[in-house]
Every structure is written in C-alpha cells, then in structure tokens.
Amino acid sequence: MKSCIIIANGDQPSKQSIIFLNRYGIKTIIAADGGANSCFKFGIVPDFIIGDFDSIEPQILSYFEHKTKLVKYIRQNDTDVEKALKFAVKRKFKTVYLLGGTGDRLDHTICNLGIVIKFFPKVRIIMIHGKTILFPYGEDAILKTTPAETISLYAFNSNTRITSTGLKYRLHNSSLKFGEKESTSNVAIGDKVKLSISGGIVFVIREFNKVKKDDLIFHS
Predict the structure, then answer these.
(1) First CA to last CA distance, the chain
(2) What digits encode the pLDDT tens for the residues 12-69?
(3) Residues 10 and 109 in one domain
(4) What global pTM score does this model have?
(5) Residue 105: what pLDDT?
(6) 3-state DSSP helix/strand/coil percent for the chain, to nearest 5?
(7) In which domain, by residue range, is 82 found?
(8) DSSP secondary structure string, 19-81?
(9) How far apart are CA 147 and CA 211, in angstroms?
(10) Is 29 in contact with 44 (CB distance < 8 Å)?
C-alpha cells in the first residue's frame, strides 16, 4: 500500500523511527507546519511542508524554501495535521505514519487521537510515540507477536465488540467503551494474537521495539 510519514509539531519524534520507516520503503515525508522544525534538527528535508506556517521557525522556513515543496493553507477550519492528512489523501496515500502527534498539550493529543478515527474510512493512521505504536483496526486482525509483549486495547463505541485469542486476559465479545472499560497492559502469550472486531474501531497499542524486532509493523 502507498504509505507516507507525517511529522507533526508535538514532541520531537525519534530520528531512528524515521530511519526505520525509510528502510522499508516509506520515503515520502510531509511536515505539518512546525513539524518541519524537527526535520531541520534531524538534517532531513521533507518532501512537503503543509500548513499556514505559523508554527515553523522563520529561519527554518527560509532554509527549506528552495529545498522542498511548500503548500500554504490559510484556512483555520482544520488543524495542521488535518491539512497534511487531506493532502496525503489527495495524493492517494492509504497509510500514514504519524510522528510528533502527541505532546505537552492534552487538547492537541486528544484531537490527533480523534483524527485517527475521523479519517479511518479514507486513510489508516498509525501513530508512533516514544516506546509505543498505535494501530487502528475496524475488522478482524491477526497480530504477529513476541511472548510477553505488552498489548493494550481501547474502543470508543458501546456497539464495538472484541473477542481475542492469544492474550493473557482474554476478551470475549467484550465492549471496551472509553471511560467504562479498557484492556490496558494485556500480554501476548505466544507468537500470534487473533482479534475478532465488530461494530467500530479499536486502538491496539504495542511496544514499538517489539514490533520492530521481527519487522512486524508491516504484517499488522
């Protein structure tokens, strides 16, 4: 599937995460406005910088002016991340790896988590932050896991039901409606976890280093 990286203006992501994704053919990098600041610090030239350019540092904007494609949107109905996502959708990307989507502002973090659901019918957004990686699923899935790997699951709709095989704390037609019940820090007991999902979207949060260990990111 056609994939790209979007770097947002939250906590600075790990350069190693970007290198890892590049190694597997995900080359296109879109900086969502101030996300270009992180690119500059890493010595990375993004393919596109999207936004109203109110978050990117002026000297960094000048540096990238003739090195990358600048796409300015002045409308304020969308966040910079949404602008970048809509741009990616128009470019026919089917999967987006969102880095820097969380930070020291809870409102921005919650907004970007909501965007994963909002855009799910159009593009699959996989968020990477620190030691964890978030995969959204709206249908049955088989995860290739490592024994004792921590896996957390969250849902948001009371109609969403989850049945699991391969987790220490089994789920059987369970509703994990946000604010009522969750499956935090569940544990894989073997090399495979099966999830049967119906009625909505489930966030599956895994240990990024475990996912990377056996190149599992592209089999999930």
Answers:
(1) 13
(2) 999 999 998 998 889 999 999 999 999 999 999 999 999 999 999 999 999 999 999 9
(3) yes
(4) 0.92
(5) 79
(6) 25, 30, 40
(7) 3-130
(8) HHHHHTT---EEEETTHHHHHHHHT---SEEEE-SSSS-HHHHHHHTTTSEEEE----SS-HH
(9) 12
(10) yes
